[in-house]
Amino acid sequence: MSQMKNFTQADVAPTYFIEFLEFLDNHRDIKRLRAECNQRMNLDRGKKIVDVGCGIGGATFPIADVVGPTGLAAGIDLSARMIEQARRRAGGRPELVFHISDAGTIPYPDGFFDGARSERLFLYLPDRLAALKEMKRVVKPGGYVCLLDTDIDSTAVYSANREMARKMTSLVAASMPNPNSGRELPALAKQADLKNIQTEVFAMATPHSFFLRAMAGSLTKASEDGIVPKAEVEGFLAEQAALDARGDFFQIWMMVLVSGTV
Ligand SMILES: C[S@@+](CC[C@H](N)C(=O)[O-])C[C@H]1O[C@@H](n2cnc3c(N)ncnc32)[C@H](O)[C@@H]1O
C-alpha cells in the first residue's frame, strides 16, 4: 500500500480506489451532503446534470434516480477503470452516461446542462480555475454549479501527542496536490464569476478502518522517502490502533460545499 498514488492516478490501483469510494458512498454524512448538493441544484425530473470527476458514480446514481429517463446524469472521469466500474453498475439505464475525459474538456456543447457538480475532485486538479470555467461553459445561463471538497489540511485526529498528530496530518496533506482545496473553494467560485455563491462547512467523523485507507499509506510512503523517521510513523499508527481497540479512535474530516449560478 505504501506505493499507492492518489486519485490523480486511480488506474494504478483500481481495486483499492474503488473500495475507498464504496466506503464513502455508504457513509451517512456523504449521503446527506450529496442530497444537499442536489437540493442546491434544484434537481427534478427531466433535468440534465454532469458529475465531473464522478469516480464509480456514487453521486451520479442518486441524481439519475431523481431526473429519471427523461433527464440525464452524465459522469466524467479521467480514470478508465473508474468509468468501467460506473458503466457496469449503470446496467444500461438510458439516463446514465459515463465518459472517460479530463475535467478540463467536458465532451458536451455550451449550455447543455441544467447543473454541474463535482465532489472531492478539486483537491487533485492542476488547474482548478480552468476546470471550474469548463463546468460553467456546459451549464445554461441561470443553471447551477455545486462543488464539494475535503479540506485535507484541516483533518483532526485524536492523540495523546498533539504535536505528533499535527505533524502526521500535515504530512498527509503535503502528499496531496491541493490540500487546502476546501477553504479555497469560495474564493475560486468568486474568481470564476459564479453568481449567488453560497458556502457551507460540514465535519464528518470517519472510523479507524478509513483512517488506515486515507492516511496510513501516505505516512508509510513519507517514512520510506526519508521525510519522517519510520519510528515516528510506526508509533503514531500503533497509538491509533490502540485507541481504536479501546473505542477511543476519533478522526474528523472537514468538507466544504460551495454552490452558485451561471
Ligand atoms: C476522490 S475521487 C471522488 C470520486 C467521486 N466524485 C465521488 O465522490 O465518489 C476523485 C476522482 O477524480 C478523478 N480525477 C482526478 N483527476 C481528474 C481530472 N483531471 N479530470 C477528471 N477526473 C479526475 C479520479 O479519477 C477520481 O475518480
Produce a short descriptive summary.
42% of the residues lie in helices and 23% in strands. The protein is an alpha/beta fold and 262 residues long.
Blueprint (SSEs and pairs):
Blueprint: H1 14-25, H2 28-40, E1 48-52, H3 60-67, E2 72-77, H4 80-90, E3 96-100, E4 113-119, H5 128-137, E5 139-150, E6 156-157, H6 162-174, H7 181-191, E7 195-206, H8 208-224, H9 230-245, E8 251-261
Parallel strand pairs: 1-2, 1-4, 2-3, 4-5
Antiparallel strand pairs: 5-8, 6-8, 7-8
The structure holds S-adenosylmethionine.
Residue windows where pLDDT falls under 50 for at least 5 positions: none
Strand content: 15-25%
- The N- and C-terminal alpha carbons lie at a distance of 41 Å
Mean pLDDT: 94
**Helix proportion of residues, in percent?**
40-55%
Bound molecules: S-adenosylmethionine
How many DSSP-defined strands? Answer: 8
Just name the CATH architecture. Answer: 3-Layer(aba) Sandwich
SSE ordering: HHEHEHEEHEEHHEHHE
Principal-axis shape equals globular
Tags for this entry?
alpha/beta; binds S-adenosylmethionine; Rossmann fold; eight-stranded mixed beta sheet
Walk me through the structure.
By secondary structure, this protein is α/β, with parallel strands linked by helices. It is 42% helix and 23% strand. The protein has a single domain (7-261), classed as Rossmann fold, CATH 3.40.50. It has helices at residues 14-25, 28-40, 60-67, 80-90, 128-137, 162-174, 181-191, 208-224, 230-245; strands at residues 48-52, 72-77, 96-100, 113-119, 139-150, 156-157, 195-206, 251-261. Strands 1, 2, 3, 4, 5, 6, 7 and 8 form an 8-stranded mixed beta sheet that branches. Helix 3 links the parallel strand 1 (48-52) and strand 2. It is globular. Bound molecules: S-adenosylmethionine. Residues 7-8, 10, 21, 53-55, 58-59, 77-79, 82, 102-103, 119-121, 124-125 line the site of S-adenosylmethionine.
